[in-house]
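User: I'm putting together a small comparison set for a docking exercise, and I want a reference complex before I start. The sequence is below, and the ligand is nicotinamide-adenine-dinucleotide. Could you produce the 3D structure with the ligand included, as structure tokens?
Assistant: Of course. I'll restate your input first, then give the structure tokens for the complex.
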Amino acid sequence: MFKNKTILVTGSAGFIGSNLMKKLLSKSENCTLIGYDNINNYYDVSLKEYRLKELDNIKSNNNYIFIKGDLIEKDKLDNIFLEYKPSIVVNLAAQAGVRYSITNPDAYIQSNLIGFYNILELCRKYPVDHLVYASSSSVYGGNKKIPFSTEDKVDNPVSLYAATKKSNELLAHSYSKLYSIPSTGLRFFTVYGPAGRPDMAYFSFTNKLIKGDTIEIFNYGNCKRDFTYVDDIVEGVMKVMEKAPEKKTGEDGLPLPPYKIYNIGNNNPENLLDFVQILSEELVSAKVLPKDFDFESHKKLVPMQAGDVPVTYADVSELEKDFGFKPHTTLREGLRNFANWYYDYYMKGVK
Ligand SMILES: NC(=O)c1ccc[n+]([C@@H]2O[C@H](COP(=O)([O-])OP(=O)(O)OC[C@H]3O[C@@H](n4cnc5c(N)ncnc54)[C@H](O)[C@@H]3O)[C@@H](O)[C@H]2O)c1
């Protein structure tokens, strides 16, 4: 897909970043692919090491380099931009998680605001063809109108995490306008899959259920999430990476910002109770849970949590219009892949 390009992916030891790098390694030719990640311990570091090892084992004719570093280390990043002059930058490194932002605000300000600003500054200093960065469905806050459209007002974040993601979009807009940096922000909707993030429900529920603990289902199960399989996200990101927003001139003779925002979500929200039902069935099929597992006695319906929203639902018509693509993996297929991976990784010890 990509030929003779230099691409920098931050957060490349992360869930989405490692999957993107995997695809880039297998689909690109003669590219220099640079991964950057601080490998922080927000969750089990061995999972990040496992993902990086998988990347090391992929044979390709690309030049793959991994550099350990923090977005905060501007000089280190500057040296990377100076040496490699990436033409495409995909910024996925960030402090993720809505709930953690309530108790650990510092990490969000550092990585998501100052870190993102460093990326913008370097894209200005060493002009890039395209900056693609992760935003989030959380920017829609408690919006009532569904499905969520990129045309909707998103000025009411209900978590600091969401506020930093919305800020990224604003900062990117100003850089696109002032310095004509083509940028695309992608609002991801609840991404899941094999070797995903242990802090997310499908993964933490599984960890709890195998220990015989009870899982808590928020808002008494009256939540809907647009669960999006990681391969669909990666396919969407790759399509977007290839086509930077065009540089055009406005009526005032000044450049219009080459700036775009897209939703990438499944466009098919699932009720949380249906989601846990499918998860439990797939965990049994994959032998993660025993056949006679009494699922009903291990779930508890509890009230809504601060920072959470009752529904997420992506309008992906813009993505379809511009790229002819929308996510298609069903929740059952995706959770089956997760359950099989979980069995191999934790129960058979294939690492
Ligand atoms: N997974 C989802 O459901 C989801 C939904 C919406 C948005 N996003 C966004 O997508 C991106 C990737 O998410 P993910 O699920 O892969 O999360 P992840 O935590 O698995 O990946 C992020 C990676 O970035 C690294 N990182 C964090 N702060 C850093 C810093 N300051 N410097 C360098 N590296 C740093 C981490 O070590 C991690 O490996 C994030 O920006 C996240 O906010 C994810």
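The domain at 6-191+228-267+313-329 is CATH 3.40.50.720 (Rossmann fold). The chain has a mean pLDDT of 96.
User: Thanks, that's exactly what I needed.
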